[in-house]
């Protein structure tokens, strides 16, 4: 009678251990090492618990009389306690050593690593790709592209409060602390879109501070990077062209950069290629013209407390600017 609900409950709980934001669904070298440590610790602790329960049940079995202990039984008890203490020391030492070597194996790149700077803001991720040779650097937001099979060193910084960068399927957590720079190694073993999250409470919209890591074959990554460091493509559609003019005439250009135009603000995310991103507002909405228009019209209703003010726009200006944003790919 109760078996089916119990089975469904177990399946529901276990389903939370898979997916694109799970430490038990690893697709990166660091995450695989961490999974081995987690599974090993769980198995060892389970065996210890079973052993303790067996000993406890044996002690509770009937037939033992008070005062029946002899010198032999006392010696046996002393030996048992000493063995338990020794086993505890060995187990704790073993777990410490395993944790130490796991940390070492995930902390250092095995080859020349691609370096990306990630700066936490309230409540979005600012991402800087450093220049490489003749290739200039560029900036994006809330989305990190990496080539598979390549070590990627993230340099983590914070502009305001403590954040924590965590993409469970690729690596462990690392804090972003104001005034200092931390690092985190990523290495994706297969293509995919891996969702991450700020894992340190950082204010009102902490839960709406997601990041997407897109791992792709090296050739696809190179094409994406080549498009990203270029200027925004000038719109040809009349509606988008009118949107560009309205964007530059309003306060939008004072906070955002669109490379190749007069918009060079640094307060908000770089919007040069926003139309090509998976989401806007740090994972809050999918990037569609409708969601762009809704965000521009009233960002405080969608994400209360964020630093983007509501800019007064007519309905025509709103339609034009959303068309312009969608065209920036």
Briefly note the CATH topology name of the largest domain: Immunoglobulin-like
Q: Give Rg in angstroms.
A: 27 Å
What would the average pLDDT be, to the nearest integer?
86
Task: Write down the domain tally.
Answer: 2
Structural class: alpha+beta
* Helix coverage percent: 40-55%
Number of strands: 12
Form type = elongated
CATH hierarchy: architecture of the largest domain: Sandwich
User: What fraction strand?
Assistant: 15-25%
The total of helices stands at 9
CATH superfamily of the largest domain: Cupredoxins -  blue copper proteins
Query: What is the ordering of alpha helices and beta strands?
Result: HHHEEEEEEEEEEHHHEEHHH
Unreliable stretches, pLDDT < 50, 5 or more residues? Answer: 6-16
Distance between the termini: 56 Å
The biggest beta sheet reads: 5 strands, mixed
- Major β-sheet strand ordering: 3-2-1-5-8
Explain this structure.
This protein has helices at 3-15, 29-60, 71-107, 218-228, 238-249, 252-255, 289-297, 299-302, 315-327, and strands spanning 114-121, 124-129, 138-141, 143-147, 152-158, 163-166, 174-176, 182-186, 192-198, 210-216, 279-280, 285-286. 28% of the residues are buried. The strands form 3 sheets. A 5-stranded mixed sheet has the order 3-2-1-5-8, with no helix packed on it. The protein has 2 domains: 21-55 and 76-229, Cupredoxins -  blue copper proteins (Immunoglobulin-like), CATH 2.60.40.420; 238-327, Sandwich (Immunoglobulin-like). The protein has 329 residues and is an alpha+beta fold. Residues 6-16 have low confidence and may be disordered. The chain contains 9 helices and 12 strands.
């Amino acid at each position: 009678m109760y078996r089916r609900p119990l089975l469904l409950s177990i399946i529901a709980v276990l389903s939370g251990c898979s997916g694109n934001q799970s430490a038990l669904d690893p697709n990166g070298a660091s995450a695989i090492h961490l999974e081995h440590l987690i599974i090993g610790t769980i198995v060892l602790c389970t065996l210890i618990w079973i052993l303790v329960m067996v000993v406890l049940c044996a002690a509770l079995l009937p037939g033992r009389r008070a005062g029946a202990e002899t010198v032999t039984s006392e010696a046996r008890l002393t030996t048992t306690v000493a063995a338990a203490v020794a086993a505890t020391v060995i187990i704790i030492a073993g777990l410490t050593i395993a944790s130490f070597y796991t940390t070492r194996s995930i902390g250092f790149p095995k080859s020349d690593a691609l370096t990306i700077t990630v700066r936490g803001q309230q409540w979005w991720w600012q991402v800087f790709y450093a220049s490489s040779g003749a290739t200039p650097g560029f900036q994006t937001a809330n989305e990190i592209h990496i080539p598979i099979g390549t070590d990627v060193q993230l340099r983590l910084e914070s502009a305001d409060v403590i954040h924590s960068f965590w993409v469970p399927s690729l690596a462990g957590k690392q804090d972003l602390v104001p005034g200092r720079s931390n690092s985190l190694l990523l290495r994706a073993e297969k293509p995919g879109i891996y969702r991450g999250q700020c894992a340190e409470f950082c204010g009102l919209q902490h839960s709406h501070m997601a990041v997407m890591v897109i791992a792709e074959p090296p050739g696809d990554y190179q094409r994406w990077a080549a498009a990203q460091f270029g200027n925004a493509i000038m719109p040809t559609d009349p509606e988008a062209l009118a949107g560009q003019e309205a964007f530059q005439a309003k306060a939008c250009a004072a906070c955002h950069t669109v490379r190749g135009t007069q918009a060079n603000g640094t307060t908000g995310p770089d919007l040069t290629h926003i139309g090509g991103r998976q989401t806007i507002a740090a994972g809050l909405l999918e990037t569609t013209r409708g969601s762009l228009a809704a965000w521009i019209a009233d960002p405080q209703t969608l994400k209360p407390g964020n630093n983007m003010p509501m800019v007064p726009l007519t309905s025509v200006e709103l339609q034009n600017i959303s068309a312009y944003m969608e065209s920036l790919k």
